[in-house]
Design goal:
By secondary structure, the chain is an alpha/beta fold. The chain has a single domain, classed as Nucleoside Triphosphate Pyrophosphohydrolase, CATH 3.90.79.10. 27% of the residues lie in helices and 26% in strands. The protein has a six-stranded mixed sheet with strand order 3-1-5-4-7-8, sandwiched between helices. The longest helix is centred in the last third of the chain and has 16 residues, at 158-173. The relative contact order is 0.18.
């Protein structure tokens, strides 16, 4: 009896490990050294979390002077969505089932930070009780704030403000938006 090399065609969902195994052996370089010369980008996943009044949950990092949204940079071999869920859990103690992807934004190099892809996922709307109960669970953070975009504007990078405006539009429209430095294309 021949085994189906694509078990998913039989209706069974594959695990990530099975998907990797189906790709075959790791690729080797046709031209040795080419992979090490390719540029590296970082990726980060953030959650758009709102309260019942439509305000956005911002975190107050201790390691920079501006506010950010919950989430963070991916670890090696970690997807942006998995990084976002991990970081939200570490930072806020929340076990969220993130919703759909709202925004993919390319951000250029800035000082020591290489260019990156920023992903924003819909974290949903917290009930009044959930919003009141959210607490910092990570020493990297100095606090939390629920703010409107207008209130947040002087406290965030302009590119994040643009990205969050796009995320709110995407949440309302049901469409995912691609942007470069917070400007839709």
């Amino acid at each position: 009896m021949k085994t189906d090399p694509h078990p998913q065609s039989a209706g069974d969902p594959l695990t990530f490990a099975q998907d990797v195994a189906l790709e075959g052996p790791p690729e080797v370089e046709f031209n040795p050294g080419i992979a090490s010369r390719l540029p590296a980008k970082s990726s980060a996943g953030g959650a758009l979390l709102r309260d019942g009044q439509g305000r956005i949950l911002f975190v107050v990092p201790r390691y920079k002077t501006v506010l950010d949204i919950p989430g963070g940079i991916t670890d090696d071999n970690e997807s942006p969505k998995a990084a976002c869920q991990r970081e939200v859990s570490e930072e806020l103690g929340l076990r969220l089932e993130l919703g759909r992807l709202l925004v993919v934004d390319w951000v250029p190099r800035n000082g020591v930070w290489r260019d990156s892809h920023q992903f924003i996922f819909d974290g949903g709307v917290l009930t009044d009780e959930e919003a009141a109960a959210v607490q910092v669970h990570d020493e990297e953070l100095g606090g939390l704030k629920f703010l409107s975009l207008d209130e947040a504007a002087p406290q965030v990078h302009p590119s994040l403000l643009r990205r969050l405006k796009l995320a709110l539009a995407a949440a309302d429209s049901g469409q995912t938006i691609y942007a470069e430095f917070g400007r839709p294309l």
